[in-house]
Design goal:
alpha/beta; two-stranded antiparallel sheet; Rossmann fold; homodimer
Chain lengths: 241, 241
């Protein structure tokens, strides 16, 4: 049935005025974009996430009737006025924003590409060259997805796994380890996934479903992902929708 | 006399149609933006340079009659069609582009914020978390400005020094060590310099001049910097202009 629903929406053009209000009355929290982990006041570590997937999900969720909060790293994108956007730079700031916004949320979709590591010590002045080599000591950032999922067992939590290799294997591990309801897995690399307008994903759910979607525009994909979220959410919480 | 010229241009509005063609017949090579130094296919080290200063200088030099080549790191900016733009990501790619473009150039203006260091080994697959800590081994990038300046003694070479502290001291050292004709020094930090539309700079020349310009719009500043470059170039090479 899920596959049918997906193929159905694939053949539809997106006309937000006649989107079914499947998420009416729901509060959806979404993260998007990269984080930046500073080395000093001018340098930082980051990644190639453009934020396009997360922003598309935020717009689609709003079109489906949800009240949307978008916690976003630095991107070049803008969102509709009725979406509450909270801008952050670092993973720590993202965790703090998510923790304050998650209360009363029904669904959490973590589409941000959060930096796994940050600098152990951030220089307050611009670092000067120190000979031919430099060692950077990094420490792990908080795991925003796992922290939020485990602290909020009633929250329907969706993660993303962007991998260059062994995509399904890593995604399955992440789904279980972080106690997610669903994970959206995609391959990234040269000209794939990040900073592109289209994407090809696999969706895995906690109860063992595996849906392979064809490559499509991220805006269309956002609606398909949300349709699958609604159906899975409904199955797990028949009283809720 | 230089200070008078500067104050003169400050009070002018920029109307590119009546800009004096001081750079007619000159070939000017400009670098702009940050570089990105990859850790793996998705992560990289970079800095907060927006490219605005270098792009403004490229446009101003073209308006003053120069043939302009712009070697640019990743930015959100565009340039006029008559400017040749070469896009690169890493410092090594920037050096390679500069080395192929510098022949027959009269003036080289290095406004890019080149990463001093790159990863010693770039992972070909996305790195996975490896416990609580991570060491990154960095090695020095080529010094594009010094390499180009020293290999081309007849090239009029202008560097930039963006510093959080001891700005004039660092800039003076860089001017001498890299055998530059001129250096443009400015302070950067929170809300200063990088990614802003205005800037306040000091200009130091190899023959000991020190000009402090007031804070101004980067587009106006570009014309003022080029005016000072033309005057200094003229003094050093009276046969050339």
């Amino acid at each position: 049935e899920i596959v049918d629903a997906v193929v159905g929406t694939l053949n539809q053009t997106i006309n937000t005025s006649d989107v079914e209000q499947q998420l009416a009355g729901k509060r959806v929290l979404i993260t998007a974009g990269p984080t930046r982990e500073p080395l000093d006041p001018v340098r930082y570590l980051t990644n190639r996430s453009s934020g396009k997937m997360g922003y598309a999900i935020a717009e689609a969720a709003a079109a489906m009737g949800a009240e949307v909060v978008l916690v976003s790293g630095p991107t070049q994108l803008s969102v509709s006025d009725h979406i509450k956007r909270v801008d952050i730079e670092t993973a720590e700031q993202m965790l703090s924003a998510v923790t304050s916004e998650v209360e009363n949320c029904d669904i959490f979709i973590a589409a941000a590409a959060v930096a796994d590591y940050r600098l152990k010590e951030v220089a307050t002045k611009k670092m000067k060259k120190q000979g031919s080599g430099l060692h950077l000591e990094l420490e792990q950032n908080p795991d925003i997805l796992a922290t939020t999922s485990i602290a909020n067992p009633d929250l329907f939590t969706v993660g993303f796994a962007a991998e260059t290799n062994d995509v399904i294997e890593y995604a399955t591990g992440k789904l279980k380890r972080k106690q997610l309801n669903m994970i959206v897995a995609n391959q990234v690399g040269i000209n794939k996934g990040f900073d592109k307008d289209s994407n090809q994903v696999d969706i895995l759910t906690a109860d063992g479903e595996h849906i392979t979607l064809p490559e499509m525009n991220k805006k269309q994909l956002a609606f398909d992902i949300l349709d699958i979220i609604c159906q899975t959410y409904h199955k797990e919480k028949p009283h809720a929708l």
